Amino acid sequence: MADAGRPTGLGGIVGGVAMWPPPSELPPPMVESSDDADEPRGGQPAPVDDPRPGELTAGWAVVFGLAWLGVGVAMAAVWTASRQLGLSTWWLGPAADPRPIFVNLLPFVAPIVLVAGSMNRLRYLPWWGVAGAAVTAAIGLGDLGRVRGFGIVELLIAAAAAAVSLAALAGMYRTGTTTTGTTTTGTTTGGGR
C-alpha cells in the first residue's frame, strides 16, 4: 500500500529513484508545411520557369549531357591510347613534336560546350549536338589516313553522338498547335517527360 503522504508515479519516487516531475505543458510541435517550403516569405509562390520551345525535357537533358560527357571521355581515351602506342593522331602530332595545345584540345570543344549547354537549358540543343557530331566526324576523317584504327574509333564516337542527338529531338519542347494548324501562345509540349 502506498502512504498517503508519499508521492508515487512519475512525479515521485519509483523504486527508490527520484524522478523529475512531469512538465506541466509541452511546447507546440514545430512542423513546417511542405506547401510553405516553396513559397517565399511574401506568401507568393516561387517563380517557375516555363519551358520554352526548343528546350529539352529534364530527362532528355540529362541523357544528352551524359552522352556528350561520354564523348569527351572517349576522346580522352583515344588521346591516351595514341600516346601509349606511339601512334600520333593528326590533332596530337608526334610525341617529339606535338601540335599546339589549342589543336590538341580541339576534339574536346564540342563535348564541353554541349555538356554546359545541357546544364543551362540551351535551346535547340539536339541540333547543336548534330553539329558537334559532325565536328567529331571531321576529326575522325582526318585520322583515317594516318592511323586508321583511331580514325574508325573517332568516327564511331561521332556516330554515337549523332544518334543520341537525333534521339533527343523526341524530348524537345515544341510550340503547341490547334487542330486548324494555327499556333497557340504560351503552351509547349514535349516528349519523354
List keywords for this structure.
4 strands, 47% helix, mainly alpha, 193 residues, two-stranded antiparallel ribbon
Count helical runs: 6
Query: Which percent band covers the strand fraction?
Result: 5-15%
Biggest β-sheet, characterized? 2 strands, antiparallel
- Class computed from helices, strands and strand pairing: mainly alpha
Distance between the termini: 71 Å
State mean pLDDT (0 to 100 scale): 81
- The proportion of residues forming helix, as a percent range, comes to 40-55%
Overall shape: it is elongated
Strand-and-helix sequence, N→C? EEHHHHHHEE
Q: Rg to the nearest angstrom? A: 32 Å
Low-confidence runs of at least 5 consecutive residues: none
Looking at how many chains there are and whether they match, the oligomeric state comes to: single chain
Number of strands: 4
For the largest sheet, list the strands in their spatial order: 1-2
Notes on the protein architecture:
By secondary structure, the chain is mainly alpha-helical. It has a domain at 61-92 and 100-174. Helices cover 47% and strands 8% of the residues. A hairpin with a 2-residue loop joins β1 (13-14) and β2. The longest helix is centred in the middle third of the chain and has 28 residues, at 58-85. The N and C termini lie far apart (71 Å).
Q: Short description, anyone?
A:
The protein has six helices and four strands; from the N terminus they run E-E-H-H-H-H-H-H-E-E.
Topology (SSEs and partners):
Blueprint: E1 13-14, E2 17-18, H1 34-37, H2 58-85, H3 101-104, H4 106-119, H5 125-144, H6 148-167, E3 174-177, E4 183-189
Antiparallel strand pairs: 1-2, 3-4
